[in-house]
Structure formats: structure tokens, C-alpha cells
């Protein structure tokens, strides 16, 4: 009997090892379904072998059976076998399930179980990457980054880029730029971490309102997703603000934002054109006014009067000259000839606003909104934006917010969101303009 047992035991061991080896082969071939057949049998033969349990858990993980995989990884840890590997796989699994706190605890446990510097780097790197992935850019992440720097004095670009973005997130702009430069100097321009570092540098310069300083790495950001972030604070963003305030006839604000767009990207022609228009608004219009009035008089003398367009131009010129009574008079003259001229009604509303006649301006804007065609998309948003500005100046916060929400589309969207942030107390206009 003893001889029979001695003879069978090697056969059993050989069989379970054969199941395990064949299962691993199928795993390496990327066929977890086939691997499961063998690994499941190997695990049934010996559920105390950590290698078999680990391979079977990995197989189940690939097949999406997360609960059973978690059970097996936890069992390996409880049995004090292959604990580092089990912790790392368990952390990765929790991360994929977006169970962030469990993943953090598990990666930290893996770090404690690490037997050599490479395992410490692996577990700390996984933790840093996960915190970065889930946007936990805070002092906790910085602590882990500092520890990683001690483990890896010659850190890779990825670590520097993550550190740069994290320092930016906690408002440590000098340190953010230092780390960004380290990543930029170590990586090639096409490398994603070079791109992340460039974005961190540009955002840091922006946060310090150094718009010219943003130029240095602004055009280096070519990754499509990262370029999308520039829409929130880049040259096009400030151009859209300048555009919105230009058509609200708030030229001082328009000038500030257009100049910021050009500071970031000096060759940006659209901003240059509108800035030239802004500067032109302040020039003396007396000669142009005189010429237009003479044209009107000549047509009257020749009894060929058709003066609506000239009245509209005179309305605009007197508005730019801050001669509001004359602007209103010519607006009324134009509207007698063209009662549905929406542009002149808008100029009249702007004139009332400049005269601090808010109720009259609000009434005209409401009329324009009510009569605007569905195709007049940009005009409607312009009216709502101006209405929001008037309600703000009238201390009617709820109505102002409602108007800005309706203007939160197209070219006026960024300016509308900015105005709402002032109303909600998230920032002040003075902070923006300093």
C-alpha cells in the first residue's frame, strides 16, 4: 500500500503541473478561455499552490470574472505566498473597477511588501499613475512623487510631468515649471509626457498672468486631447472674449482680452483685426459725420431721399463719439424709415445702456429677442448677453444668470460663463483684469 501511494504521488504532481503549464501557454497566446480549462483543473488538484492560484486568478480577471479573481488574490495574500504580485494585480483590478480607495490601500500594501528597489519603484509608480489618472492632484500625490524621486534620482519624463501637473494643481507654480522643464529636457517632442509637461508650463504661466511667457511652449502642444485644454485659456479663448465684448460695445474690456490673445500668439490675425477696429472706435468721427450729413442734405435737395443706411451709420458714429442724444435721434430717424431694422434697435438699446437708462434698454432687447428668427442664432445670443450685463448692473442677479445661460452658446459662451462666475462669487472681475 505504501509503495502504491509513493508511486501515485509523482503522477499526481506531474498531472497538475502539466495542467498548469498548458494553461500558462494558452494565457501567453492570449486565449484565456482555453487557459481556464487547464488552470481550473490544476487549481482543483492543488489549491494551495500560489503559482497555480495566481495564474488562475489572472485568467479569471481576463475573462471578466472579477469577484472570483479578487477572492483568489486575497487568498494568496492571506496564505502569505507571492504577496507582492497578488497585491499588484489586486490593485490593478480595483483600479480598473474605479474603486480608487481600495486601489490606493492595495498599492500601498504592495509597497510595504516590496523585497527590492525594483518592486518599490513598480508599486510606487502604479500608485502615482493611478492618482494622476483619477485627477487626485494634491499634496498626497506630491508626497508619493517625492518618495519616488528618492527611489529614482534619475527619474523618467513621466514622473516629472506628473509632478509638474500636480504642483500646478496645488498652486506651486515655480515648482511646476521646474518639473516641467526636467520632463521637456528628457523627452522628445512627440512623447506624450513632453506634451503634458508643456501644458503644465503654459498653464502655470497663464495662472501668473504672464501671457507672453505662455508663448514659449504654447505651439509645442500638438496632442489633440491636450490641445483641447487650450480652448479654456488659450489665444482663441481670449479672442472669443474680446469678440463678445466688442459686440457689446464694451471696448475697454474687448481691448484687454484681444491684447491677451495676441500676447499668447502674436501672429493671430483675427484678434489683430478686431483690435484695430477697437482702436479705430476711439478716433475722431467729426469729418465722417459731416460728410454723411452733407450726403443726406444733397439727396434731399435733389428730392432723392433714401437715408436709412446713412442714419444707421450716423447712429453708430455718434454712439462711438459718446454723443448719445444725437445717436438716439438718428436711430429714431432710421426706424421711421425701417421700423424692423434690428441692428439699429440694438444700437439704440446700447445707447440707452450707455446713458444708464436701463429699463428702456432692457425693453428694446426683450423686443429684439421676441422678434428674432430661429436662424438669427448669433444675434439672439448677443441680445441675451447684453441683457445679462444690464440685469447685472441693475442688481437683478437671478434674471442676469438666466440671460447669461441663454447666451452660453457660440462665440458668446465663454464670456457668458465668465460673467456667471462673477455673479456666483467664484472670481471677481478685478482679479481677472489685474
Topology, pairings included?
Blueprint: H1 2-28, H2 32-45, H3 50-62, H4 66-78, H5 83-96, H6 100-113, H7 117-133, H8 139-151, H9 157-169, H10 173-186, H11 192-207, H12 215-218, H13 224-229, H14 235-246, H15 251-264, H16 269-281, H17 286-301, H18 308-320, H19 324-337, H20 342-354, H21 358-371, H22 377-393, H23 397-406, H24 413-423, H25 429-433
Give your account of this protein's structure.
This protein is mainly α and 434 residues long. Among the domains are: 235-281, no CATH class; 310-433, Serine Threonine Protein Phosphatase 5, Tetratricopeptide repeat, CATH 1.25.40.10. The chain has helices spanning 2-28, 32-45, 50-62, 66-78, 83-96, 100-113, 117-133, 139-151, 157-169, 173-186, 192-207, 215-218, 224-229, 235-246, 251-264, 269-281, 286-301, 308-320, 324-337, 342-354, 358-371, 377-393, 397-406, 413-423, 429-433. It is elongated, with a radius of gyration of 34 Å.
Estimated share of beta-strand residues? under 5%
Estimate the global geometry from the Cα principal axes.
elongated
Portion in helices = over 70%
Biggest sheet layout: none
Number of helices: 25
Features:
mainly alpha; 434 residues; Serine Threonine Protein Phosphatase 5, Tetratricopeptide repeat
What is this structure, in a nutshell?
The protein contains 25 helices and no strands.
Amino acid at each position: 500500500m505504501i509503495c502504491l501511494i509513493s508511486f501515485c504521488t509523482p503522477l499526481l504532481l506531474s498531472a497538475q503541473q502539466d495542467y498548469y503549464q498548458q494553461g500558462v501557454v494558452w494565457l501567453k497566446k492570449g486565449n484565456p478561455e482555453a487557459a481556464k480549462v487547464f488552470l481550473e483543473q490544476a487549481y482543483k488538484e492543488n489549491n494551495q499552490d500560489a503559482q497555480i492560484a495566481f495564474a488562475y486568478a489572472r485568467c479569471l480577471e481576463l475573462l471578466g470574472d472579477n469577484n472570483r479573481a479578487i477572492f483568489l488574490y486575497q487568498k494568496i495574500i492571506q496564505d502569505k505566498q507571492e504577496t507582492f504580485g497578488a497585491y499588484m494585480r489586486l490593485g490593478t483590478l480595483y483600479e480598473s473597477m474605479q474603486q480608487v480607495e481600495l486601489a490606493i490601500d492595495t498599492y500601498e500594501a504592495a509597497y510595504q511588501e516590496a523585497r527590492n528597489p525594483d518592486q518599490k519603484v513598480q508599486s510606487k509608480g502604479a500608485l502615482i499613475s493611478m492618482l494622476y489618472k483619477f485627477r487626485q492632484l494634491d499634496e498626497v500625490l506630491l508626497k508619493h512623487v517625492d518618495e519616488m524621486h528618492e527611489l529614482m534620482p534619475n527619474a523618467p519624463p513621466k514622473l516629472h510631468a506628473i509632478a509638474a501637473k500636480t504642483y500646478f494643481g496645488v498652486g506651486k507654480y515655480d515648482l511646476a515649471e521646474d518639473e516641467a522643464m526636467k520632463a521637456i529636457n528628457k523627452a522628445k517632442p512627440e512623447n506624450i509626457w513632453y506634451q503634458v509637461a508643456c501644458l503644465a508650463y503654459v498653464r502655470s504661466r497663464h495662472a501668473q498672468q504672464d501671457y507672453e511667457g505662455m508663448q514659449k511652449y504654447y505651439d509645442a502642444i500638438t496632442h489633440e486631447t491636450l490641445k483641447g485644454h487650450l480652448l479654456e485659456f488659450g489665444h482663441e479663448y481670449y479672442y472669443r472674449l474680446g469678440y463678445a465684448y466688442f459686440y457689446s460695445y464694451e471696448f475697454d474690456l474687448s481691448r484687454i482680452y484681444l491684447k491677451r490673445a495676441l500676447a499668447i500668439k502674436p501672429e493671430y490675425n483675427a484678434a489683430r483685426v478686431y483690435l484695430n477696429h477697437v482702436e479705430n472706435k476711439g478716433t475722431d468721427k467729426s469729418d465722417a459725420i459731416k460728410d454723411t450729413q452733407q450726403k443726406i442734405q444733397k439727396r434731399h435737395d435733389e428730392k432723392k431721399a433714401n437715408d436709412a443706411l446713412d442714419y444707421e451709420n450716423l447712429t453708430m458714429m455718434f454712439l462711438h463719439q459718446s454723443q448719445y442724444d444725437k445717436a438716439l435721434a438718428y436711430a429714431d430717424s432710421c426706424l421711421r424709415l425701417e421700423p424692423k431694422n434690428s441692428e439699429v434697435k440694438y444700437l439704440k438699446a446700447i445707447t440707452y445702456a450707455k446713458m444708464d437708462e436701463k429699463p428702456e434698454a432692457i425693453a428694446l432687447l426683450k423686443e429684439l429677442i421676441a422678434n428674432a428668427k430661429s436662424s438669427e442664432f448669433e444675434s439672439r445670443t448677443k441680445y441675451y448677453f447684453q441683457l445679462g450685463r444690464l440685469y447685472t448692473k441693475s442688481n437683478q442677479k437671478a434674471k442676469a444668470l438666466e440671460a447669461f445661460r441663454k447666451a452660453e452658446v457660440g462665440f458668446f459662451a465663454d464670456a457668458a460663463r465668465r460673467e456667471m462666475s462673477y455673479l456666483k462669487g467664484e472670481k471677481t472681475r478685478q482679479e481677472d483684469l489685474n
